[in-house]
Amino acid sequence: MVAAQRIGEVRQEVRAARARGARVGLVPTMGALHEGHASLLRAARADGGLVVASIFVNPTQFGPTEDLAKYPRRLERDLEICRREGVGLVFAPSAAEMYPAGFATTVHVARMTEKMCGACRPGHFDGVCTVVAKLLAIVRPDTAYFGEKDAQQLAVVRRMVADLDLGVEIRGCPTVREPDGLAMSSRNAYLSPAERRQALALSRSLAEAREAVLAGERDAGRLAAQVRQRLEAAEGVDLQYVAVVDPDTLEDLGRVGDKALVAVAAKMGATRLIDNVVLRGLKV
Ligand code: AMP
User: Fold this and answer.
1) Looking only at Cα atoms, what is the longest distance across the chain?
2) Which of 6, 52, 141, 238 is the most buried (most CB within 10 A)?
3) In the annotation, is 124 catalytic?
4) 98-140 pLDDT, tens per residue?
Protein backbone atom coordinates (compact mmCIF):
# COMPACT_ATOMS: atom_id res chain seq x y z
CA MET A 1 0.00 0.00 0.00
CA VAL A 2 1.27 3.45 -0.93
CA ALA A 3 0.46 6.43 1.31
CA ALA A 4 0.68 9.70 -0.60
CA GLN A 5 0.41 13.26 0.64
CA ARG A 6 0.99 14.95 -2.69
CA ILE A 7 -1.31 15.19 -5.70
CA GLY A 8 1.58 14.42 -8.05
CA GLU A 9 2.27 11.08 -6.32
CA VAL A 10 -1.39 10.12 -6.63
CA ARG A 11 -1.45 10.87 -10.33
CA GLN A 12 1.70 8.80 -10.81
CA GLU A 13 0.31 5.76 -8.95
CA VAL A 14 -3.01 5.96 -10.77
CA ARG A 15 -1.21 6.28 -14.11
CA ALA A 16 0.82 3.15 -13.32
CA ALA A 17 -2.35 1.23 -12.41
CA ARG A 18 -4.04 2.35 -15.62
CA ALA A 19 -0.98 1.22 -17.60
CA ARG A 20 -1.50 -2.26 -16.06
CA GLY A 21 -5.09 -2.13 -17.29
CA ALA A 22 -6.53 -1.83 -13.78
CA ARG A 23 -9.80 -0.07 -13.06
CA VAL A 24 -9.71 2.53 -10.30
CA GLY A 25 -12.17 2.98 -7.42
CA LEU A 26 -12.18 5.92 -5.00
CA VAL A 27 -13.53 6.04 -1.44
CA PRO A 28 -13.43 9.60 -0.08
CA THR A 29 -13.38 9.86 3.73
CA MET A 30 -12.48 12.21 6.55
CA GLY A 31 -10.70 9.41 8.41
CA ALA A 32 -11.44 8.05 11.91
CA LEU A 33 -12.46 5.00 9.94
CA HIS A 34 -15.12 2.61 11.20
CA GLU A 35 -17.11 -0.31 9.79
CA GLY A 36 -19.20 2.06 7.66
CA HIS A 37 -16.09 3.22 5.84
CA ALA A 38 -14.81 -0.37 5.70
CA SER A 39 -17.99 -1.42 3.90
CA LEU A 40 -17.27 1.16 1.18
CA LEU A 41 -13.68 -0.07 0.91
CA ARG A 42 -14.98 -3.65 0.55
CA ALA A 43 -17.45 -2.60 -2.15
CA ALA A 44 -14.55 -0.99 -4.01
CA ARG A 45 -12.35 -4.02 -3.46
CA ALA A 46 -15.06 -6.32 -4.83
CA ASP A 47 -14.99 -4.35 -8.09
CA GLY A 48 -11.26 -5.08 -8.43
CA GLY A 49 -8.37 -2.97 -9.67
CA LEU A 50 -6.76 -0.21 -7.64
CA VAL A 51 -8.69 0.94 -4.56
CA VAL A 52 -7.87 4.50 -3.58
CA ALA A 53 -8.99 5.88 -0.20
CA SER A 54 -8.69 9.57 0.57
CA ILE A 55 -8.39 10.76 4.16
CA PHE A 56 -8.89 14.49 4.44
CA VAL A 57 -10.71 16.46 7.10
CA ASN A 58 -11.91 19.08 4.65
CA PRO A 59 -11.96 22.47 6.41
CA THR A 60 -14.28 24.10 3.87
CA GLN A 61 -17.21 21.86 4.75
CA PHE A 62 -17.16 22.85 8.43
CA GLY A 63 -18.95 25.97 9.67
CA PRO A 64 -17.11 28.48 11.89
CA THR A 65 -18.69 27.07 15.08
CA GLU A 66 -18.41 23.41 14.12
CA ASP A 67 -16.06 20.63 15.22
CA LEU A 68 -13.18 20.99 12.71
CA ALA A 69 -10.48 21.38 15.38
CA LYS A 70 -11.68 18.47 17.51
CA TYR A 71 -12.73 16.16 14.65
CA PRO A 72 -11.08 12.79 15.45
CA ARG A 73 -7.76 12.26 13.64
CA ARG A 74 -6.29 8.76 13.78
CA LEU A 75 -4.08 8.43 10.73
CA GLU A 76 -1.94 5.48 11.88
CA ARG A 77 -4.99 3.41 12.79
CA ASP A 78 -6.74 4.45 9.57
CA LEU A 79 -3.73 3.34 7.49
CA GLU A 80 -3.84 -0.03 9.24
CA ILE A 81 -7.54 -0.43 8.39
CA CYS A 82 -6.87 0.56 4.77
CA ARG A 83 -4.03 -1.98 4.55
CA ARG A 84 -6.30 -4.68 6.00
CA GLU A 85 -9.10 -3.85 3.52
CA GLY A 86 -6.85 -4.12 0.49
CA VAL A 87 -6.50 -0.43 -0.32
CA GLY A 88 -3.66 0.12 -2.81
CA LEU A 89 -3.27 3.87 -2.40
CA VAL A 90 -4.16 6.22 0.45
CA PHE A 91 -4.24 9.92 -0.33
CA ALA A 92 -3.92 11.96 2.88
CA PRO A 93 -3.12 15.51 1.79
CA SER A 94 -2.56 18.60 3.90
CA ALA A 95 -5.00 21.48 3.67
CA ALA A 96 -2.29 23.48 1.87
CA GLU A 97 -1.95 20.76 -0.76
CA MET A 98 -5.68 20.89 -1.48
CA TYR A 99 -6.15 24.65 -1.04
CA PRO A 100 -2.90 26.40 -1.96
CA ALA A 101 -2.60 30.18 -1.74
CA GLY A 102 -4.78 31.82 -4.36
CA PHE A 103 -7.40 29.05 -4.40
CA ALA A 104 -10.61 30.73 -5.61
CA THR A 105 -13.06 28.15 -6.95
CA THR A 106 -16.26 26.84 -5.39
CA VAL A 107 -18.55 24.20 -6.84
CA HIS A 108 -22.13 25.04 -5.91
CA VAL A 109 -25.08 22.75 -6.55
CA ALA A 110 -28.22 24.89 -6.32
CA ARG A 111 -31.60 24.24 -4.66
CA MET A 112 -31.21 20.69 -3.32
CA THR A 113 -28.39 21.94 -1.06
CA GLU A 114 -30.54 24.63 0.53
CA LYS A 115 -32.72 22.33 2.62
CA MET A 116 -32.19 19.67 5.29
CA CYS A 117 -28.49 19.65 6.31
CA GLY A 118 -27.81 22.52 3.92
CA ALA A 119 -30.25 24.74 5.83
CA CYS A 120 -28.65 23.82 9.18
CA ARG A 121 -25.08 24.08 7.85
CA PRO A 122 -24.81 27.00 5.40
CA GLY A 123 -21.98 26.47 2.91
CA HIS A 124 -21.47 22.85 3.94
CA PHE A 125 -22.33 21.37 0.55
CA ASP A 126 -20.21 23.93 -1.30
CA GLY A 127 -17.28 22.57 0.69
CA VAL A 128 -18.30 18.98 0.02
CA CYS A 129 -18.84 19.50 -3.73
CA THR A 130 -15.61 21.43 -4.18
CA VAL A 131 -13.49 18.83 -2.41
CA VAL A 132 -15.23 15.88 -4.08
CA ALA A 133 -14.81 17.51 -7.51
CA LYS A 134 -11.11 17.97 -6.75
CA LEU A 135 -10.69 14.39 -5.55
CA LEU A 136 -12.44 13.09 -8.66
CA ALA A 137 -10.20 15.27 -10.84
CA ILE A 138 -7.05 14.12 -9.04
CA VAL A 139 -7.83 10.39 -9.03
CA ARG A 140 -10.15 10.15 -12.07
CA PRO A 141 -11.70 6.91 -10.82
CA ASP A 142 -14.12 4.71 -12.76
CA THR A 143 -16.32 4.50 -9.67
CA ALA A 144 -16.55 6.49 -6.44
CA TYR A 145 -18.27 5.00 -3.39
CA PHE A 146 -20.45 6.98 -0.98
CA GLY A 147 -22.57 5.94 2.00
CA GLU A 148 -26.35 6.26 2.09
CA LYS A 149 -25.80 7.40 5.68
CA ASP A 150 -25.19 10.82 4.14
CA ALA A 151 -28.17 10.59 1.80
CA GLN A 152 -28.32 14.27 0.90
CA GLN A 153 -24.59 14.28 0.14
CA LEU A 154 -25.03 11.24 -2.12
CA ALA A 155 -27.87 12.91 -4.05
CA VAL A 156 -25.95 16.19 -4.35
CA VAL A 157 -22.79 14.45 -5.57
CA ARG A 158 -24.79 12.51 -8.16
CA ARG A 159 -26.34 15.80 -9.35
CA MET A 160 -22.91 17.46 -9.59
CA VAL A 161 -21.41 14.53 -11.51
CA ALA A 162 -24.33 14.51 -13.96
CA ASP A 163 -24.37 18.29 -14.40
CA LEU A 164 -20.62 18.58 -14.96
CA ASP A 165 -20.37 15.36 -17.04
CA LEU A 166 -17.60 14.13 -14.77
CA GLY A 167 -17.87 10.64 -16.24
CA VAL A 168 -17.58 8.71 -12.99
CA GLU A 169 -20.04 6.16 -11.65
CA ILE A 170 -21.30 7.10 -8.18
CA ARG A 171 -22.13 4.02 -6.12
CA GLY A 172 -24.31 4.37 -3.03
CA CYS A 173 -23.67 1.85 -0.24
CA PRO A 174 -26.11 0.94 2.57
CA THR A 175 -25.77 2.45 6.04
CA VAL A 176 -23.83 0.27 8.46
CA ARG A 177 -25.25 0.25 11.99
CA GLU A 178 -24.18 -0.78 15.47
CA PRO A 179 -25.92 -3.95 16.68
CA ASP A 180 -28.54 -1.82 18.48
CA GLY A 181 -29.32 0.20 15.35
CA LEU A 182 -27.29 3.40 15.84
CA ALA A 183 -25.84 4.46 12.49
CA MET A 184 -22.05 4.31 12.65
CA SER A 185 -20.40 7.71 12.55
CA SER A 186 -17.01 9.13 13.47
CA ARG A 187 -18.96 11.62 15.61
CA ASN A 188 -20.45 8.86 17.80
CA ALA A 189 -17.13 8.99 19.68
CA TYR A 190 -18.21 12.36 21.13
CA LEU A 191 -21.33 10.92 22.81
CA SER A 192 -21.49 10.43 26.58
CA PRO A 193 -22.92 7.04 27.66
CA ALA A 194 -26.31 8.71 28.32
CA GLU A 195 -26.32 10.48 24.94
CA ARG A 196 -25.29 7.23 23.25
CA ARG A 197 -28.40 5.54 24.74
CA GLN A 198 -30.67 8.47 23.92
CA ALA A 199 -29.40 8.60 20.32
CA LEU A 200 -31.14 5.28 19.64
CA ALA A 201 -34.37 7.24 19.31
CA LEU A 202 -33.18 8.34 15.84
CA SER A 203 -32.80 4.89 14.29
CA ARG A 204 -35.90 3.65 16.13
CA SER A 205 -38.09 6.45 14.82
CA LEU A 206 -36.85 5.73 11.30
CA ALA A 207 -37.43 2.00 11.67
CA GLU A 208 -40.99 2.84 12.72
CA ALA A 209 -41.37 5.11 9.69
CA ARG A 210 -40.26 2.26 7.46
CA GLU A 211 -42.76 -0.07 9.12
CA ALA A 212 -45.51 2.50 8.62
CA VAL A 213 -44.70 2.81 4.90
CA LEU A 214 -44.53 -0.95 4.48
CA ALA A 215 -47.90 -1.17 6.24
CA GLY A 216 -49.33 1.17 3.60
CA GLU A 217 -48.88 4.72 4.91
CA ARG A 218 -48.39 6.97 1.87
CA ASP A 219 -49.10 10.41 3.33
CA ALA A 220 -45.71 12.10 3.64
CA GLY A 221 -47.00 14.73 6.07
CA ARG A 222 -48.36 12.09 8.43
CA LEU A 223 -45.11 10.12 8.23
CA ALA A 224 -43.03 13.20 9.02
CA ALA A 225 -45.36 14.09 11.89
CA GLN A 226 -45.04 10.58 13.33
CA VAL A 227 -41.24 10.76 13.32
CA ARG A 228 -41.23 14.34 14.63
CA GLN A 229 -43.58 13.50 17.51
CA ARG A 230 -41.49 10.50 18.48
CA LEU A 231 -38.25 12.52 18.47
CA GLU A 232 -39.68 15.59 20.17
CA ALA A 233 -40.83 13.34 22.99
CA ALA A 234 -37.46 11.59 23.27
CA GLU A 235 -35.15 12.62 26.08
CA GLY A 236 -31.95 14.42 25.10
CA VAL A 237 -32.88 14.82 21.43
CA ASP A 238 -32.74 18.36 20.07
CA LEU A 239 -34.42 17.81 16.71
CA GLN A 240 -33.22 19.89 13.73
CA TYR A 241 -35.35 18.48 10.94
CA VAL A 242 -37.44 15.60 9.69
CA ALA A 243 -37.68 15.36 5.89
CA VAL A 244 -39.69 13.03 3.69
CA VAL A 245 -38.35 13.60 0.19
CA ASP A 246 -37.54 11.96 -3.10
CA PRO A 247 -34.14 10.26 -2.52
CA ASP A 248 -32.80 11.36 -5.93
CA THR A 249 -34.09 14.94 -6.31
CA LEU A 250 -34.66 15.68 -2.59
CA GLU A 251 -37.96 17.30 -3.53
CA ASP A 252 -40.61 17.25 -0.80
CA LEU A 253 -43.16 14.51 -1.23
CA GLY A 254 -46.86 15.00 -0.70
CA ARG A 255 -47.54 11.33 -1.14
CA VAL A 256 -44.97 8.55 -1.14
CA GLY A 257 -44.76 6.89 -4.54
CA ASP A 258 -42.32 4.09 -5.37
CA LYS A 259 -39.46 5.65 -3.39
CA ALA A 260 -38.86 7.87 -0.41
CA LEU A 261 -36.06 9.14 1.80
CA VAL A 262 -36.98 9.79 5.42
CA ALA A 263 -34.12 11.76 6.94
CA VAL A 264 -33.52 13.30 10.35
CA ALA A 265 -30.89 15.44 12.05
CA ALA A 266 -30.64 16.14 15.76
CA LYS A 267 -28.23 17.39 18.32
CA MET A 268 -27.45 15.12 21.23
CA GLY A 269 -25.80 17.58 23.60
CA ALA A 270 -23.10 19.22 21.47
CA THR A 271 -23.01 16.40 18.92
CA ARG A 272 -24.95 16.65 15.69
CA LEU A 273 -26.11 13.31 14.32
CA ILE A 274 -27.96 12.42 11.13
CA ASP A 275 -29.73 9.25 10.07
CA ASN A 276 -32.20 8.18 7.43
CA VAL A 277 -34.02 5.34 5.80
CA VAL A 278 -34.21 4.96 2.02
CA LEU A 279 -37.20 3.10 0.67
CA ARG A 280 -37.22 2.03 -2.98
CA GLY A 281 -39.33 -0.28 -5.09
CA LEU A 282 -42.48 0.50 -3.08
CA LYS A 283 -45.84 -0.62 -4.43
CA VAL A 284 -47.73 2.35 -5.90
P1 AMP B 1 -16.99 10.67 6.44
O2 AMP B 1 -15.63 10.16 6.80
O3 AMP B 1 -17.93 10.76 7.60
O4 AMP B 1 -16.95 11.91 5.58
O5 AMP B 1 -17.63 9.55 5.53
C6 AMP B 1 -16.96 9.08 4.38
C7 AMP B 1 -17.90 8.20 3.61
O8 AMP B 1 -18.31 7.09 4.41
C9 AMP B 1 -19.18 8.92 3.16
O10 AMP B 1 -19.53 8.50 1.85
C11 AMP B 1 -20.17 8.43 4.18
O12 AMP B 1 -21.51 8.45 3.71
C13 AMP B 1 -19.71 7.03 4.42
N14 AMP B 1 -20.20 6.54 5.72
C15 AMP B 1 -20.06 7.14 6.92
N16 AMP B 1 -20.71 6.43 7.87
C17 AMP B 1 -21.28 5.38 7.25
C18 AMP B 1 -22.11 4.29 7.68
N19 AMP B 1 -22.46 4.14 8.95
N20 AMP B 1 -22.50 3.39 6.75
C21 AMP B 1 -22.17 3.54 5.45
N22 AMP B 1 -21.39 4.53 4.98
C23 AMP B 1 -20.96 5.44 5.86
Assistant:
1) 58
2) 52
3) no
4) 999 999 999 999 999 999 999 999 999 999 999 999 999 999 9
